[in-house]
Design brief:
This protein is α+β, with helices and mostly antiparallel strands. It is built from seven helices and twelve strands. The strands form two sheets. It has a six-stranded mixed β-sheet. It has a six-stranded mixed β-sheet with strand order 5-6-7-8-10-9, covered by helices on one side. A hairpin with a 2-residue loop joins strand 6 and strand 7.
Length: about 250
C-alpha cells in the first residue's frame, strides 16, 4: 500500500507563484498512491479561481472516500486538510488543534478499510511555534476521539513544521510511536526548490511494516508547490506475513 502526504500550497508554485493545480495533480498521479493526505487545500478562494479543490481532486483520482477539514476561513472560502482514499472510510473525526488565539489548525482522523485490514490514519498541519506543536501533539494523542481507535495500526502524517525534529524524542517516543522519516537528513522537503527543512513527516505505531519511504524530488515537484511530497510504502504486518506464508 502507498501513502502520499503533501502540502500543496493551494496549488501555487513555490518560486513562480503561479496557480497551477494541474501540476499538483501530475505530481500525485506519477506516484499512484492509495491514500492521499494533503494540507493547504483551497475551497472557493479567489487566488485559486474560486475552485472547489477537494471536489476536483476527489473526482480526478476517483476516490472511494473524501474527507475535507476547513481550518482557516477567509472573507470568501478558506483552506484546510484533505484525505482521499482508494478504499472506504469506516469512521472519521475532525479535531481542532487551535491553541488560544493562534492560527486555526486541525487534524483529520480516519479509520480506513484497506484490503489488509483497518488502518487508523491521521492527517494534520501543525503550528509554527515549538510550544504550540508540543501542545497540539499532546492534545491529539490524549483526545477521546483519537483514543477510540488507538488500538488499531496507526499512521500520523502531514506538515509538522518541526525543523529541529523535537517532537520525535518527546511526545511520540513517550507514546511508543516510531518515526518513518528518519534519518531526517534524507527527508528534507522545504522549500521545494532547495530543500533544507524536514517539515513533512510521518510516525507510526502498532502492527505496521514500513517497506520504503522517500521524498519526491522530481523537477515538476520542485515547481508545483513550496513543499515536496512524502511517499510511504507499507503493509499491515499480519496481512504481509499471511501473503508470504501463502
Amino acid at each position: 500500500m502507498r501513502l502520499l502526504s503533501y502540502n500543496i500550497h493551494k496549488g501555487i508554485g513555490g518560486r513562480d507563484r503561479l496557480y497551477r493545480l494541474e501540476r499538483i495533480i501530475e505530481v500525485i498521479e506519477n506516484e499512484n498512491p492509495d491514500l492521499i493526505c494533503l494540507q493547504e487545500v483551497d475551497r472557493h478562494v479567489r487566488r485559486s479561481r474560486f475552485q472547489n479543490q477537494p471536489r476536483l481532486l476527489a473526482r480526478y483520482f476517483s476516490a472511494a472516500d473524501k474527507l475535507y477539514q476547513l481550518n482557516v476561513r477567509l472573507k470568501r472560502g478558506g483552506y484546510g486538510n484533505l484525505i482521499l482514499s482508494r478504499w472506504p472510510v469506516q469512521s472519521h473525526h475532525h479535531v481542532s488543534l487551535r491553541l488560544n488565539n493562534k492560527k486555526p489548525r486541525g487534524a483529520q482522523l480516519a479509520v480506513i478499510e484497506t484490503p489488509e485490514g483497518l488502518l487508523h490514519l491521521i492527517n494534520w498541519h501543525l503550528g509554527l511555534a515549538e510550544r504550540e506543536r508540543q501542545w497540539q501533539v499532546d492534545h491529539l494523542l490524549n483526545h477521546r476521539l483519537f483514543l477510540e481507535s488507538a488500538s488499531l495500526p496507526t499512521m500520523i502524517a502531514g506538515d509538522f513544521n518541526d525543523w529541529r525534529n523535537a517532537l520525535a524524542p518527546g511526545p511520540f517516543a513517550e507514546n511508543e510511536f516510531k518515526q518513518v522519516t528518519h534519518p531526517i537528513s534524507r527527508f528534507r522537503s522545504f522549500p521545494a526548490y532547495l530543500p533544507v527543512g524536514p517539515l513533512d513527516k510521518a510516525f507510526y505505531r502498532g502492527d505496521l511494516l514500513i517497506k520504503h519511504a522517500r521524498v519526491v524530488r522530481t523537477a515538476l515537484a520542485k515547481r508545483a508547490s513550496d513543499h515536496l511530497p512524502l511517499v510511504i510504502d507499507f503493509h499491515l504486518n499480519g496481512s504481509f506475513e499471511h501473503l508470504i506464508e501463502g
